[in-house]
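User: Before I run my own analysis I want an independent prediction to cross-check against. Here's the chain; please return only the structure tokens and, at the end, one sentence I can use as a sanity check.
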Amino acid sequence: MLKLENACITFHPNTVNERRALDNVNLHLKKGDFVTVIGSNGAGKSTMLNAISGTYIIDSGYVYLDGQDVTMQKSYKRAKHIGRLFQDPLKGTAPNMTIEENLALAYSRGSRRGLSRGIKKSDEQMFREQLSRLGLGLEDRLKSKVGLLSGGQRQALTLLMATIVTPKMLLLDEHTAALDPKTAKQVMDITNEIVKENNITTLMVTHNIKDALHTGNKTLVMSGGKIITVLEGEQRENMTLEKLMKLYSDAAGDSFSDKNLLD
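Assistant: Structure tokens:
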């Protein structure tokens, strides 16, 4: 479903601030893979997601989505097939539009944009059914402006918008980090349910080591713009924070505290 081949991105090339943000990254994801990504600040986690989404066009290498070469494709074209959530719950929704208007725009992804004079009754009923799954009571607030919702409600709504038309890829960039622990767990539970039900290929950047090691089927560890190790199977199941710190230090050639990994 996704293939990165020798993907490279350099920020501020030929200056004193030059930095290799992605350094010959190779990654192959099969359909239905749910892969978590961890690493310290500057490791290249969000840059990799930006390269996949088309927010950044890579300097060299290739990006393939479902067998198609999208290396030079603009982000708005990839958005037809890629859903994305960010850390900030305020991103991804239009605050001055109602819940149903936001959902209608998301539902039209890949087709002609814009709202008709009214939303079809059949679509409205479907929106209610989808919202009811969130368990947040939003199905009774279709006419409410999204700007009135809490951060957790907006993030759950954004997740639903990103998947209401099943995407080929779902990119989650620390999408629970700004939420309180109870709400974060709720949004994470909803995420797991939607991803599993629709068999969506997913990449999730997280600083929560527990989530990283117990969500999905693989964990990528990044450092210095590279994927330094891939955890899966029995190795992943038996991984502890202490083992992970040693593995990271050995592979990255760097010694650091657990705070460095989690920041």
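Sanity check: The longest helix spans residues 181-198.
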